[in-house]
Write a structure and sequence with these properties.
This protein has 400 residues and is an alpha/beta fold. It contains 15 helices and 14 strands. The structure holds adenosine-5'-diphosphate. Adenosine-5'-diphosphate binds next to α10 and α12.
Length: 400
């Protein structure tokens, strides 16, 4: 079966067509600037020349139409007819407490995703628009929702209840949900397979370090604790997000700078993190380059980021009974897969736990590999993530 995977952002739509007979990628692409001047589709059928299509796209429905046209195009397409698409898998950011697993989308599911808009006002609405557009254009094809939060629904209350009055949880469902679940789950499955263990036997600390970053303690193959919270703002400092800080700072800044809730939310989500500290960029490559040229604030941003990762790993090690129980520390996503210096700096700072990197093994990008030294107490893995494949696998499982 061929499965189309869709990931809708507020003005973007990413897609992949995957042949599930061999899990091979057939085509992929990205639609940018939907509803904005200068819309553009970048389409690639594997083995054929890339195609860029420009022209105003007013909404996600129009974007999806061009994507489907591209997939069946005689010259640069991947399939002969849309009938070849067996199912569509959608990435949905927030499933709240309603979804601990992926589901086939029906009216009840749509109601629940709509109910959770409150918890993810920036993310769930475009996901819903993407699903509605697919339902209209492909009415006979089954649609599946795969939630970023689902993997973390196994966390115990010990790790998801905030120290607020309990009524805040009861009345408004304020709790830790966690994100990047599809990625943490994918690398957990891969690490288990590399270790020759069944998934429910593996204990890991998985580090998804990209533009957005989160760390998860995985116990027996399940999420036990994770660094992101009610929203994807908590935990590590990120490209533009603060991560953890004293919650009193929000009110303080609003008062001092005369900011509204919307303005302060914008400041802590879009102007902070390593961008805010360095003043250079939100992109780690730019920051590494600036630091190498002697920019002290860029270096400080990197140091703060790496130190935060170390402190999370250190604190998550306390969730296990002994170091022997921990099968691995896993790095993934843009930074985790590609930046050997980030990986080395993080691991070198964990010497108190006896974790050691092998510099030669670590001297690579984007490979699935063990990069720890022979005598390291805990193995260190690099595993390139593949959220789209995970979504396609869940989709196939549900529709077959
Ligand atoms: P997202 O999917 O959250 O947008 P990614 O997982 O693609 O993000 O990660 C993007 C981040 O990874 C960027 O900050 C980018 O600079 C960083 N990155 C990618 N390649 C490298 C590299 N070779 N060295 C350092 N950082 C890298």
């Amino acid at each position: 079966m061929k499965i189309l995977v869709i990931n809708c952002g507020s003005s973007s739509l990413k897609y992949q067509l995957i042949n599930m007979e061999n899990e091979e990628l057939m085509a992929k692409g990205l639609v940018e600037r939907i509803g904005i001047e200068g819309s553009r589709v970048k389409h690639e059928t594997i083995g054929k020349e890339k195609k860029v299509i420009e022209g105003k796209l007013n909404d996600h429905g129009e974007a999806l139409k061009i994507v489907l046209d591209s997939l069946v195009d005689e010259e640069y397409g991947a399939i002969a007819s849309l009938d070849e698409i067996g199912a569509v898998g959608h990435r949905v950011v927030h499933g709240g407490e309603d979804f601990a697993e992926s589901v086939i989308i029906d009216d009840k599911v749509m109601d629940a995703i709509n109910r959770n808009i409150d918890l993810a006002p920036l993310h769930n609405p475009p996901n819903i628009i993407g699903i509605e557009a697919c339902k209209k254009i492909l009415p006979n094809v089954k649609q599946v929702a795969v939630f970023d939060t689902a993997f973390h629904q196994t966390m115990p209350a010990l790790n998801y209840i905030y120290a607020l009055p309990y009524e805040e949880y009861e009345n408004h469902k304020i709790r830790r949900y966690g994100f990047h679940g599809t990625s943490h789950k994918y690398i957990t499955d891969r690490a288990a397979s590399m270790l020759g263990k069944s998934v429910d036997e593996v204990n890991l600390i998985t580090c998804h370090l990209g533009n957005g970053s989160s760390i998860t303690a995985v116990k027996g193959g399940k999420s036990y604790d994770t660094s992101m919270g009610l929203t994807p703002l908590e935990g590590l400092p990120m490209g533009t997000r603060t991560g953890n800080m004293d919650p009193a700072i929000v009110g303080f800044i609003m008062d001092k700078d005369g900011l509204s809730i919307e303005e302060v939310n914008n400041l802590i989500n879009k102007q902070s993190g390593v961008l805010g500290i360095s003043g250079v960029s939100s992109d780690f490559r730019d920051i590494e380059e600036a630091a190498e040229k002697g920019n002290e604030r860029a270096q400080l941003a990197l140091d703060i980021f790496e130190n935060s990762v170390r402190k999370f790993i250190g604190s998550y090690l306390t969730e296990f009974d002994s170091l022997d129980e921990v099968d691995g520390i896993v790095f993934t996503a843009g930074l985790g897969e590609n930046s050997k210096s980030t990986r080395a700096n993080i691991i070198n700072g964990l010497s108190a736990f006896g974790v050691k990197i092998d510099d030669e093994a670590n001297d690579m990008r984007g490979e699935e590999k063990i990069v720890s030294a022979e005598d390291s107490t805990i193995r260190v893995f690099v595993i390139p993530t593949n959220e789209e494949l995970m979504i396609a696998r869940d989709t196939l499982e549900l529709v077959k």
